[in-house]
Amino acid sequence: AAIEDSSIDFGDFFRGKLPGKFLLLLGWLALSRVGTYIPLPGVDRAAFSGSMTDNSLFRTLDAFSGGGIGRLGVCSLGIVPFINAQILFQLLGSLFPELERLQKKEGEAGRKKVLQYTRYASVAFAIFQAIGQVLYIRPYADDFSLGWIFTSISLLTIGAVLTSYIGERISDIKLGNGTSLLIFTNIISSLPASVGRTIDQALKDANYAGLGTIGLSFFLLVLGIVYVQESERRIPLNYASRYSGGLQKSAYLPFKINSSGVMPIIFSTSALALTSSVARFSGATGFNNIVATLNPGGSFYLPTNAVLIAFFNYFYTFLQLDPSDVSDQLKRQGASIPSVRPGKATAAFIETVLTRISVLDSTFLVIMAVSPAAVEWLTHLTAFRGFAGTSILILVGCATDTARKVKAELISQKYRVLDFTSDT
Q1: For this UniProt entry, which segments traverse the membrane (predicted)?
Q2: Which residues pair with 254 in a beta bridge?
């Protein structure tokens, strides 16, 4: 009876630990936003913010930081150094067997050790990126002295470490990934201002059709993201006789269509931003002209971005799911794919499936990446620039993930209540 009663009503939310968890979550998220409003000393922030107006790449990154880059807040680096450290160790795990063993075969102890290494690496990334940011804002500094440089680098590094710490504490609450929720909060904080600027521009230009087109495209993007996020390729499984008690007909191996999330787009954006930064510091005219074609609005931006997204998506998909490892796990569990021999044949079959999924997912991510530029060209409204399809993907993905965890917590809570109150 307890298993069949899985209905949830509004009152169930207040009968367990969820209200306290949500209050704690909101408290950590509010604390993470405080640092973006504490400015670095000795900088002309108005002039710096004005210099970002025509750079859509930096405006997109500013949306991810919740406006921290434009305000030059002490937490303007945000969670980016920690993400870079995570990516580094994921890549190193595919190169060094010892690190891969820690990540996959040592259980919780191994994951904690890798997390500790990631923390150390994130501090190094924070220092490096803080130096780069200080050098970039040099023209807007009131007194570019050694003391100001040391103070600014220290404040930015401390802000990044504090943000990473908050992200870990949010993950401990078990209502979603801390990193994703921090980015979700930053994007949400930028959304009202972006919508306000877009409506204001549309009203000034009497561009009501363009405003309606943006609203419709936003609605369609959300529907498409939810559909793809919840889609999966299910491969049927057969179990050995000792496992066949009712499982043979219902067991399957699920592969998410969008298993890599938004990481390929983030990688592609970072690569293009790095190229732009190198050109800015090099000062070479020819190189600057080439890089200008790769910036948003340039002639080669869209095709280059699409190729990079497809490459990173393919790489990240197989970084997360190793066909040989999946094949070995199925063999140990006594499971097999119908009409496919265990071992190398199963690994080859899974690799083919993942390759096809990667093509579909790459097409979806490219549409997400280029849709803002297409809508901007169609509507002639540019004020919404910076709030890209990537941002919508993060918002919808994070919201659905949190909703799924809340529902699971409510069902689990109800099962515990029924278990304690039922007669035995």
Answers
A1: 22-40, 69-96, 117-136, 148-167, 208-228, 262-280, 300-319
A2: 234
Place of tokens 């006594």: 334
pLDDT tens digits along 116-136? 888 999 999 889 888 878 887
For residues 381 and 195, is the Cβ–Cβ distance under 8 A? no
- More confident site: 46 or 205: 205
pLDDT at 245 over 60: no
Residues 6 or more apart whose Cβ sits within 8 Å of residue 61: 69, 269, 273
Mean pLDDT across the chain: 77
Please state whether the predicted TM-score (pTM) of the whole model is above 0.85.
no
Closest by CA position to 169, among listed 157, 182, 186: 182
**What integer is the mean pLDDT of 213-237?**
84
Please name the fold of domain 1-189: Preprotein translocase SecY subunit (1.10.3370)
Instruction: Tokens 């108005």: give the residue.
Output: 46
Q: How many CA atoms lie within 13 A of 413 on its CB side?
A: 18
Q: What CATH number does domain 207-386 carry, 1.10.3370.10, 1.10.3720.10, 1.20.1300.10, 3.40.50.300?
A: 1.10.3370.10
